[in-house]
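Kindly review these tokens for lecture notes.

. . .
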Amino acid sequence: MRNLLNPKWLFVINTLPLVVLFFLFFGQFKIIKTLLEESSIQLWKSFGLSLGVLGLMNFAYAVYLTLKKRNVSVWFGLIALLCYIPFIYLYGYNLDKIIPFSIPQWMVSGNIFLYVGTFLMPTLAYSLFVLVSHFTPENKEHKAWINFLIAIGIPIAGYLFTQIILPLWQPFDRDFNVHAMVILVIAATLVFLFFLIRGVFILATKKAEVWQKYQLAWKIPIAIVLPLIGLSVNNGHLFNNFGPSDSGIFGDFNNAWFYVLAVINGIMVCLPNLENKLYRLIVFIGRSITFVYTLYFFLVFLPFLPLSVIAIIAIGTGFLMLTPLLLFVIHINELSKDFTFLRTLFSKKLIIAISLLGFLIIPAFITATYLKDKSVLNETLSYLYSPDYSKQYDIDKVSLQKTLNVIKSHKDHRDSRGGIFGNGIPYLSSYFNWLVMDNLTLSDSKINTIEKIFFGNISFELRPENIQNDNVQISNISTNSTYDKSQKAWKSWVDLEITNKSGNNWFSEYATTINLPEGCWISDYYLYVGDVKEPGILAEKKSAMWIFSQIRNENRDPGILYYLTGNKVAFRVFPFAKDEVRKTGIEFLHKEPITLNIDNNIIELGNIEETIYEKIETESIAYVSVQQKQKLNSVKRKPYFHFLVDASKNQSRNSTDFIKRIEQVIEANQPLSENAKISFVNSYVTTTTLDKDWKGEYKNQTFEGGYYLDRAIRTTLFNAYQDKSKTYPVIVVVTDSIQNAVLDKDFADLKFTFPENDLFFNLDKKGNLIEHSLTENPIKELPEILRECMFCETVLEYKLTDNSVAYLANNNQPSIILRKDIFEISETEIKEKNWQSALTMQGQWTSQILHPEISDKEWLNMVKYSFISKVMTPVTSYLVVENEAQKAMLKKKQEQALSGNKSLDLGEDTQRMSEPSLILLTILLGLVIWYREKRKRQWTE
């Protein structure tokens, strides 16, 4: 332990943690500063300045000692304790003013209340080691039992104090009582830890023959027995009612490797130090490898060392909190002995290199494991959300299941109770979230989707969002359309007054869906918050929706617009008190006159008289107006069946029946059987033609996973569109339970690929073709309609300048044609609130719908172009928030989302904090109990 007196340790133990702590709090302050009162801001500045001064003084001292080649003085240990303990104490005492209770919980970073203790405890522990080293000189004989006796006496005295003296304590001032008790606890804890560490240090360095002879008698309990008991207690295998958490009060250490490494590490520490060169080198390597395990648990429990005396008094198993500290001292001492022995046989640099390499083995193994998890996850997300329809995939399901289990273990859920570090593994979960998840997450709904596709089951029961919008209606509408002759397009404002007529005293919400015509986009938005007209902020969609969800949970004033699928836009305003009237407005950018339906209110924007019609066809995209479509020829393309047969888990028993149904429908519709295709659908899609041995191929399928109908339909539509022939598929789903298919959203984004109609069919047990919609709730069966002619719809034939043909829906709506499947956009092409720019961005979005494999690359460009043009696209959202702190949080979340995988999430729609139990409050007596006690007093007053 005397090697710790090297001043270079100060850079690692003090400087680095203080820098991290400073930037963590600075980031937090930037977000909430506008919500703080002047007194709170002054506290932030005072504590920040104090932390900066302390850090600079320690850094300067470390540099000075390094240059002078001197060891750390005992005075550093004393002064550091006298400086940092009051800092932590005052921070805890003022915590309710530094982060007031008025600050929304979702704006406060994770365990920020524990950050000060976590990052300053290494310095306090180091100071104790310095004092122990100084007051235990090598040239004197010391008795370990005296130190242990004093250490044991302190919790005994504390217990007697709480049982005898404390009940008789009659304080004359409440604040004085709190201060006095805390000072007593701090003093007792420091003395306890000093003598405990000193006793172990004497024991580990004792050269007396009796201690060496019987060293296993005290090493085995500390190095093997107590760590295993500690893991068992934390994980609930012993004393099931210990702690408030399903995953352990100090974290989830249920993985078998924690127990295996505990045994291996204990054995390495307990091995005798023989005077054999090869043996000692092997032991040194082993101890270097497992030292990271000892160090890990030392760091996990380090913030809670000041509470160890309280834990011992309050809980019989509280002494287990000290095991990592004792093991750390012994392990350091054994490594020091090995190093001293080996440096006489090998070069010092070689020994240091060996120890460093050994130390990195476990972290390297963890990193490699996490990188494998990242690879599997990214491949899976790519298959689901940015697939190449022309590519065959083969996901490693064993690795995927393991990765999902890790992700689920790291997630906090409303129905699970987390310990001090949440439901994950301390520090390792944070490392996993950074390396694998880009500091994002995978929502419960996406985990369900993945599990349903590949394993045929789900893990989470999802609760639908409760939107109270009964009788919250539009009470007044006004419009103002202006024709911009420079770009030959309309800009139209629709101003709305929305009234809560429900008589509901609870907060209500206005929520509706606006179907935009082709060639129409939203280019601005506002919402009155009180009497202030707040302009909408155009933000990345995931970030905006997350912020909206959090503000909504606080019953504050957000409004939001965002795309669902196709041209459907969600419009939400919250909250509405009883009889409240709120004003809001949306600006639409459109080429020709349009008619909007907003909650059954028909709104006409623009007029034919002022509109200038022109042919719009660029190198990559074309726009066909209603006027142009009226002059086009209608044609009838030839339909053909494309069967999508359920080949998921447990469906092999239905194969004979499914074959029979297909044969019956083919017999009844012979013209559609020509060139017919069939796809066998489970986790993947395997397609063949009906003129081959499709029956034998179907029976030879591996029936596993879920019925991934969404992928099957998208692949069918994509292939048919790419074919560009005068035929089109009639999609027939063959399954007994379409409700169990993986079909979570509609296909409105691909509407241009099925211009005839938006129908597909489910072949039921009676051989009937049951209609379903591709654009509205595909799972739902449509009402039966008698048709004069099935599959007789016509489309419009449009010839482009290169003589290629596009088939358009035969309706009274404009159409957009993608001339190039993939094309690039120059930033100079994008102009603010420009219709042509919006058309170009729509083409880019359509390109990504057809070729999702390019979306990971082009997503950031789509967001950037949307910001430049101020036109909302499917990757952005217009959001109104009410204060600068919410705007700062939106900016932070947006940066986080844009720097990560686009298929990952910022979180669940709602987040609720679980209340800690009485035992947790007891263990976290120090800072946390002051914080909570003040909170209780404030609420009662």
Summary: The chain has a mean pLDDT of 84. The chain is about 45% helix and 15% strand. The two ends are 51 Å apart (CA to CA). The chain has six domains: 1-135, 136-205, 368-455, 472-533+548-616, 637-793, 797-878.
